[in-house]
Amino acid sequence: MNFEGLLEAAHNVVRSLSRPWDDRLNVILRYCVDHGAFPKIGRLSPEGEDLPTYLKLYITRYYGAREQRLEFRAVGTTPDPAVDVILQAFIGLSDLSVVSEHHRQSMAAENLLGLLLERYIAEQLEPQGWVWCAGNTVRSVDFLSGDLSTALQVKNRDNSENSSSSAIRQGTSIKKWHRINSKTGKTNWPSFPVK
Amino acid sequence: MNFEGLLEAAHNVVRSLSRPWDDRLNVILRYCVDHGAFPKIGRLSPEGEDLPTYLKLYITRYYGAREQRLEFRAVGTTPDPAVDVILQAFIGLSDLSVVSEHHRQSMAAENLLGLLLERYIAEQLEPQGWVWCAGNTVRSVDFLSGDLSTALQVKNRDNSENSSSSAIRQGTSIKKWHRINSKTGKTNWPSFPVK
């Protein structure tokens, strides 16, 4: 993909959305072009026919994440009744709707925690010249150093991904850091890869 | 990798463990060789120096999973205190240790549910000539048709994996099925891909 052409198309989209251009997009788009790291959005990819539509969704996502006011948001899934059957049969729990509600509130809190963590780190790193890839604009990368020498993925816990999800980093130079160890409960701030 | 050589090495390992040979391993090993689908075990892979050690772990895993008696097993992780902070700050919960315990019991039940589902399906499919890839012996595959024409991955819910984990199936012909839809709560048994 031609970077200059893409950049021009992105500028056009930003203008059409009546936004000021955000210079951090230069870093993000450059990395995505160089590393083939554009995410799919729905079924769209930047190599498809309809680059303007892709870029409009992409840019909207980026600005949207930067402006989003975080809130506690209930999980959007339905409880699985098979979980209740197991809780009753194996450990004799009876107050199953309360248990389920607590589980769902905790999952919602974990989701929010991931978002808060990302924003907290963004607040710390961006004044040092890093770029937050807001809105999942770079596949498997949350932060880029301004000179593009380092790509960083941040997770809350060491067990936030399984072997399949970590496989996507194979053969890349993406650094990974997690906040907390799921076994010991120890946090990992001292080893944060940016000083 | 040479299939005949591998098969002989596997036979030797099974003998050294004083086990009878399980013919389903022929199917599993054939698929792994043909599709490069051997999982890593710790840091070991079958291409490494130490094939006998790899195979010993691999075969032990396979027989172990087949013989394992499932039980309700508490999750092995430590609660993250940041979750408590969020539950208190955003939705004013106070009985945080109870909430956390319910969350952990529910996660343990979900883990067990995945194992029970896999075994239930194995019980249904194996009499029809399918092979259960017990003990994660095939990367991203849970069941193989005996003629190796179909590989199947089974999940409990449609949201049991993220985009990174599903990426590992790209370019493969692995079929995926999930039991329950996380949004609607509807189960998917009518569309199970084996009749």
From TrEMBL, chains A, B:
The keyword Flavoprotein does not apply. It comes from the Bacteria. Its EC number is 3.1.21.4. InterPro entries: Restrct_endonuc_II_SinI. The keyword 4Fe-4S does not apply. It comes from Meiothermus ruber (strain ATCC 35948 / DSM 1279 / VKM B-1258 / 21) (Thermus ruber). This is Type II site-specific deoxyribonuclease. Keywords: Hydrolase. GO terms for molecular function: DNA binding; type II site-specific deoxyribonuclease activity. GO terms for biological process: DNA restriction-modification system.
